[in-house]
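Work Package 4 report. The design task specified in the project plan requires that, given a folded chain encoded as structure tokens, an amino acid be chosen for each position. We show below one input record used in the internal validation round.
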């Protein structure tokens, strides 16, 4: 909509895709205006005309990165003052292009000498993929004859010489082309497919981390295969641009875009209240967001279906972190590989996983989850307002981004477990990667990043597009399945294995509960009674508090009372509640061992293949490992453990063959 002209201007002289930078210079030159006299310049709060410094390439209230904060110009006010329609200023700047897509642009102005001679300039010339002007096929120029870049910032000094470089040697237009360019609308049609492509890219969101090196790493994986990314996202790549088709692996997720009122609601819980210390207390330890939900669902799936029964291996690894013995255990038992991979996965994604996972216990405070960078990277500031992304669709994008990052971290942990099997040395120092970055001021400093915030290819990069059709999410590299951690890939096989385990457990209990048994009670002491027959499905538990929980017992109901029966001895205790039965069994076990010497249930030693070296070297290596564990801990000394293992193998190779054979 055009308003009443307030400035001297030739109506209809704004060509399609003309840059805001060139137009403002023309307006200032025709009307002999200074920066403070521009009526369409707005300050940060929009309180009135003020134009100390305005970025005309992106035309945003604040510059991005380390650039100096500045102001923006009101395009609506400019159009009203010139009597031009607002539509004439489409793509006059890149303010509507998301931050994540600005890696396609040069952060400076480029000009075509032929277009500039005819009084035309477009902001689209700053596109990196354009090697030459689409109109005249001329090479672009980004510097004046004085060697300085063309300044896209409008301030007091720039408008002192409107239409010229500060040195006065390069003119942006002549007295004739300042009033009306010689080009017409038909001549700028080669820019139309490029503008249409950028319009589609304005609906694409990508990771936009604040750290410059991390952001560059995402762009380095995105730009060489830009044509393939556009094809995966359903965006037509213009034929006038050079194709970027470097091979890349993609993973697709697509869902129909429905109105917010039709979004599927989460199932309501039947119980709204829980006692103190119950489920409500446990859930309060986690932050209620999409990233936490995805991570907890993944860990629950691994714990229940992939790594069931693998906790003992993880505890043994942390108590005796011998990289060589750990690798030999993983070579012999696949469950040890799953336990090792799960340890690395949980530690890389959850900072305090050890406080609640091995063994299970309530943590001291609020649990750490996937950090807020996951949600911040999913949608940038103002994204949903600009592109019409509803809260439900935004939650879907965050969920997909978190799922891609969590799945990639699990695949990477699996790869480290397989590397330990191949090399014979377990190395878990990769749970944290160290990168170098340029700190200012001072020399480069190392930066520790967890897997969720690491740079590609240690982490995935992704893109999502929102339009009239379905929501589409694409991530690269694609996270392929690894079969060795999934012995039961389908639910039917898992159910069959569970039924076989239940039958074996029932048969074991029935075989144990035959004949007479030692029975203890607080009033009657020790008696010999008939063994109790289970009337419910028995469950086997670890007796906590006795020798670190090495004793196991069955807990079931018989004759309306609860029965706790030892697995390794013929001892049973009755109780009116599970707590009473377990407490009685613990008391009876302590009394019997003190008076009658009932054998303790020790943990079965695992068969470890002896290392091919002499005994003194083996003892020295074990001593160094335990010292490192005492000083640095399991995770803090991860790199040192691997270094000790490599030194130990190097010493063993230097031994003569006779000395190595004596160790067997």
């Amino acid at each position: 909509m055009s308003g009443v002209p307030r400035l001297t201007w030739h109506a209809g002289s704004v060509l399609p895709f003309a840059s805001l930078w060139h137009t403002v210079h023309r307006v200032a030159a025709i009307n002999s205006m200074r920066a403070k006299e521009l009526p369409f310049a707005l300050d940060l709060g929009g309180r009135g005309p003020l134009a100390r410094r305005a970025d005309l390439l992106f035309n945003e209230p604040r510059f991005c990165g380390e650039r100096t904060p500045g102001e923006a110009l009101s395009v609506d006010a400019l159009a009203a003052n010139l009597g031009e329609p607002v539509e004439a200023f489409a793509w006059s700047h890149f303010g509507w292009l998301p931050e994540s897509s600005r890696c396609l642009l040069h952060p400076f102005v480029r000009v075509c000498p032929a277009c500039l001679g005819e009084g035309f300039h477009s902001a689209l010339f700053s596109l990196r993929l354009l090697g030459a002007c689409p109109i005249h096929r001329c090479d672009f120029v980004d510097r004046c004859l004085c060697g300085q870049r063309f300044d896209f910032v409008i301030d007091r000094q720039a408008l002192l010489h409107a239409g010229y470089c500060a040195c006065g040697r390069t003119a942006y237009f002549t007295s004739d082309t300042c009033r009306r360019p010689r080009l017409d609308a038909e001549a700028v049609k080669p820019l139309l497919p490029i503008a249409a492509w950028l319009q589609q890219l304005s609906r694409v969101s990508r990771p936009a981390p604040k750290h410059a090196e991390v952001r560059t790493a995402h762009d380095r994986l995105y730009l060489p295969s830009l044509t393939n990314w556009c094809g995966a996202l359903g965006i037509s790549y213009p034929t006038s641009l050079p194709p970027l088709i470097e091979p890349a692996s993609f993973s697709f997720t697509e869902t129909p875009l429905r109105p917010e009122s039709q979004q599927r609601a989460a199932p309501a819980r039947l119980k709204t209240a829980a006692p103190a210390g119950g489920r409500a207390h446990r859930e309060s330890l986690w932050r209620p967001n999409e990233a936490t939900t995805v991570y907890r669902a993944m860990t629950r799936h691994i714990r229940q279906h992939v790594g069931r029964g693998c906790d003992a291996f993880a505890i043994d690894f942390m108590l005796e972190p011998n990289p060589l013995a750990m690798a030999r255990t993983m070579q012999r038992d696949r469950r040890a590989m799953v336990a090792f991979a799960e340890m690395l996965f949980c530690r890389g994604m959850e900072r305090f996983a050890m406080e609640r996972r091995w063994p299970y216990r309530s943590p001291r405070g609020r649990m750490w989850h996937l950090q807020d960078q996951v949600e911040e990277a999913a949608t940038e500031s103002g994204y949903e307002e600009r592109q019409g992304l509803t809260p439900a669709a935004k939650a879907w994008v965050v969920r997909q981004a978190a799922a891609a990052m969590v799945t990639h971290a699990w695949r990477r942990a699996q790869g480290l477990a397989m590397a330990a099997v191949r090399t014979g040395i377990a190395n878990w120092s990769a749970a944290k990667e160290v990168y170098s970055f340029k700190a200012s001021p001072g020399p480069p400093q190392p930066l520790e990043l967890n897997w969720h915030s690491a740079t590609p290819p240690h982490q995935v990069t992704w893109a999502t597009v929102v339009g009239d059709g379905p929501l589409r999410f694409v991530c690269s590299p694609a996270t392929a399945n690894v079969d060795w951690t999934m012995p039961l890939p389908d639910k039917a096989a898992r159910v069959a294995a569970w039924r076989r385990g239940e039958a074996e457990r029932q048969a074991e209990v029935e075989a144990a509960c035959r004949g007479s048994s030692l029975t203890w009670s607080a009033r009657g002491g020790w008696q010999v009674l008939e063994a109790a027959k289970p009337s419910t499905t028995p469950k086997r538990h670890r007796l906590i508090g006795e020798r670190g929980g090495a004793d196991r017992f069955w807990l079931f109901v018989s004759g309306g009372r609860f029965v706790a029966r030892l697995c390794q001895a013929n001892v049973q205790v009755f109780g009116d509640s599970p707590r009473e039965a377990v407490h009685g069994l613990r008391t009876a076990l302590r009394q019997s061992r003190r008076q009658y010497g009932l054998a303790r249930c020790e943990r079965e030693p695992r068969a470890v293949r002896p290392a091919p070296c002499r005994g003194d070297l083996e003892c020295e290596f074990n001593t160094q490992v335990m010292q490192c564990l005492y000083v640095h801990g399991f995770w803090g000394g991860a790199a040192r453990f691997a270094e000790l293992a490599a030194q130990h193998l190097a010493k063993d190779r230097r031994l003569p063959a006779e000395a190595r054979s004596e160790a067997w």
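The first helix runs from residue 20 to 31. Validation will be extended to a larger panel in the next phase.
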